[in-house]
Design a protein that fits this description.
binds NADPH dihydro-nicotinamide-adenine-dinucleotide phosphate; EC 1.1.1.94; binds 1,3-dihydroxyacetonephosphate; NAD(P)-bd_dom_sf; phospholipid metabolism; N-(1-d-carboxylethyl)-l-norvaline Dehydrogenase, domain 2; NAD binding; phospholipid biosynthesis
């Protein structure tokens, strides 16, 4: 019996559902936990989740709203939105009485505390062994078994490697690292930058402008990463540059789609979670505290809270003083 034979996924949205299929494909015994009992019962009986339409779950995946059932697994994947990760882990905490890996699968930074996901896990559940999974991977692609590669980070390299062995398969290839912060920064920042990229497309500024924006966006992501102690190879790896490229290139990304709508002066797509909108103000606060210049992210935050028009933001970015490329 391999280590981590049983896996529970907390949060039955698009990503949680896709991750349940990943773990099942890797041969694990999987429990998918939904907070709503009716949703759980419906997914269990139909093997279909309206949050990830068109994907049929294998019947071996146990779907439940009973937290005690899920909490007994050998590893826990938390796939709620970032701002709800703390409440999810708080609920789990009383069930976690011995060391168990708790893997954050959300991309974001907590409002108010400026804490990254693994720090929130460590605070909320004393026995948890925090880890993070992030990288270029749309839930729909992953659930359909299209090839994807991500990064999985834990402070303990042996643990990160064992988690990769437990979750990896031919179509879902996690790479392990101990650079937890690097992985967290990439996933959080890329969503904000994807909104900016979408605005460029929505405003018809052209493919050259999109490439420039994405590249300068990476530059500021990497600046913040370095200031927070992240490693260069993580920032330019799957969870940093890789996810930025994916999210800045297709309207399959909800953050990019939000940016397109903003750029066109249209309403935001209804019912779609765009984490970048929640991360933008916190990211900018964090950057200011670290004295890191993040002009694109600042512009996104200012546009989202109505302090700046899109035209003024574009003009502001294009009239910054010329400087050396770094
Ligand atoms: N979708 C994707 O392609 C990817 C998403 N991610 C990340 O995963 C995270 C989740 O995104 P995604 O699954 O797409 O979002 P969805 O909107 O599809 O689903 C979010 C899920 O979280 C549940 N939820 C919300 N609050 C809580 C809570 N307090 N406790 C428990 N469950 C809760 C919701 O429950 P209910 O149904 O009852 O409302 C819902 O099922 C985000 O941080 C996102 O950036 C990462 C990689 C890929
Ligand atoms: O994180 C993702 C892909 O790696 C999903 O992107 P969106 O949240 O923008 O849809």
């Amino acid at each position: 019996m391999p280590a981590f034979q049983s896996v529970a996924v907390i949060g039955a949205g698009a990503w949680g559902t896709a991750l349940a299929t990943v773990a099942a494909r890797a041969g694990r015994n999987v429990t998918l936990w939904a907070r709503n009992a009716e949703h759980a019962a419906r997914i269990a009986s139909t093997h279909d989740n309206p949050r990830l339409p068109g994907v049929r779950l294998v019947p071996e995946i146990v779907v439940t709203s009973d937290l005690a059932v899920a909490a007994g697994a050998d590893m826990l994947l938390i796939a709620t939105p970032a701002q709800h990760l703390r409440s999810a882990v708080n609920m789990l905490a009383s069930h976690i009485t011995k060391p168990v890996p708790v893997i954050a699968c959300a991309k974001g930074i907590e409002h108010g505390t400026h804490k990254f996901m693994t720090d929130v896990i460590a605070e909320a559940a004393a026995h948890a062994q925090p880890a993070i999974l992030s990288g270029p991977s749309f839930a729909d692609d992953v659930a359909r078994g299209l090839p994807t590669a991500v990064t999985l980070a834990a402070k303990d390299e042996a643990l990160a490697s064992a988690l990769v062995q437990a979750l990896g398969s031919a179509t879902f290839r996690p790479y392990h690292t101990t650079d937890v912060r690097g992985v967290e920064i990439g996933g959080a920042a890329k969503n904000v930058l994807a909104i900016a990229a979408g605005i460029v497309v929505g405003r018809n500024l052209g493919a050259s402008a999109l490439a420039a924006l994405t590249t300068r966006g990476f530059s500021e992501l990497a600046r913040l990463g370095r200031a927070c102690g992240a490693r260069t190879e993580t920032l330019s790896g799957l969870s940093g540059l890789g996810d930025l490229l994916l999210s800045c290139s297709t309207a399959q990304s909800r953050n990019f789609a939000l940016g397109i709508a903003l750029g066109r002066g249209e309403a935001a797509p209804a019912g779609k979670l765009a984490e970048g909108a929640f991360t933008a103000p916190v990211l900018v606060e964090l950057a200011a505290a670290r004295k890191v210049d993040m002009p694109v992210s600042q512009a996104v935050a200012a546009i989202l809270d109505g302090r700046l028009t899109i035209d003024a933001a574009i003009e502001g970015l294009l009239t910054r003083p010329f400087k050396a490329e770094e």
